[in-house]
Amino acid sequence: MTNENDPIAKPSLTTKKLYPENQESPIHFLFNKQTPASLFYKRNHFSYPPFNYANFWLSVNDSVKKPIAFSIEELLALPSKTVEVVMECAGNKRSLFRPKVFGEQWEKGAMSVGRFKGVPLKTLLEKANIDSDSQEVVIEGYDDGYRSDLDNVYAYMRSLPLKKALHPDTLIAYSYNDQPLPFKHGYPIRLVVPGWYAMASVKWVKQITVISASFAGPFQTIDYMYYPNQDNDEDAFPVTTINVNSTIQYPLDRDIVDTGKHTIRGVAWTGDGVIKKVEISVDGGESWMPASVDNGQEFSLSQWSLTYPFTAKKEYTIMSRATDSNKRTQPETPFWNRKGYGYNAVDQVTIKVE
Question: pTM value?
Answer without folding.
Answer: 0.95
